[in-house]
Amino acid sequence: MKILNAEDKSFRNYGILINNVDFAPVIDELSKVEIPEGVIYEPSVEALESTSSFAAVRDVCYGESDIQIGYCIGHNTMLNALEYHRSSEINIFATDAILILGKREDIKEDNTYDTDKCVAYYFKKGMAAEIYATTLHYAPCSAKKGEGFLVGVVLPRGTNYPLDTAHADVSTGSSNEDGLITAKNKWLIAHSEAAGEAGHFFGLNGINLDIKDDI
To answer: Under a CB-based contact definition with an 8 Å cutoff, are residues 11 and 123 in contact?
Structure first.
């Protein structure tokens, strides 16, 4: 799979690099975290939200709306699933990392998506990027063999927390978007070969992309 640099102009179709907020305090805190073998996501981390970056990103990037700063860390080279939110997500890179992205507009009427439409972008340590609400994404990938990733994740407060009410079951029909909701403000389409995605809608058609041979 071809991996483009995040500074390539084509990335503007999926997001934008952020240069008007100092994320160094978040990166410093993330650098203290031990990288696990698998992948761990925490939606809200007090140490990150206590940094001076919190107020800046809340006010400048989210127009003073309430936000949370967490992280996604670990080792990964596979796509496995794609998700989207009704809001932009900001990723803060405390290590080099790769994001596999797609476009929500390419989801078919039956909520399936062809993985050959995905693109991959390489982000360098120190970068921060807004990933648009119309961009499909999931867990970052390691940028180098044997090395893990540390990525801060900023989202509106409450995103990715457990749901309060019942939603449509995926078995009721793949044309029902409500069946894609797996957490608050989170719609997810999984690949049938992905470990750990049981119970989600298996709507990713094609290869479960793996970048291990491209890094």
So the answer is: no
The pTM for the full model equals 0.96
DSSP helix/strand/coil, 152: strand
Is residue 182 a part of any domain in this protein? no
**Domain count of the fold of the chain:** 1
**Three-state SS at 204:** strand
In 3D space, the residue among 119, 84, 130 whose CA is nearest the CA of residue 211 turns out to be 119
Look at residue 8 and tell me if it is in a domain. yes
Residue 17 resides in a domain: yes
pLDDT tens profile 12-42: 999 999 999 999 999 999 999 999 999 999 9
Which amino acid type is present at position 29? E
pLDDT digits (tens, 9 = 90+) for 174-205: 678 999 999 999 999 999 999 888 789 999 99
Q: Does residue 103 fall inside a structural domain?
A: yes
Alpha carbons within 13 angstroms on the beta-carbon side of residue 181 total 17
Beta-strand ranges (E) seen in 7-66 are: 15-17, 39-42
Residue 52 and residue 73: Cα distance in Å, rounded?
Answer: 22
Question: What CATH code is carried by the domain that includes residue 13?
Answer: 2.60.120
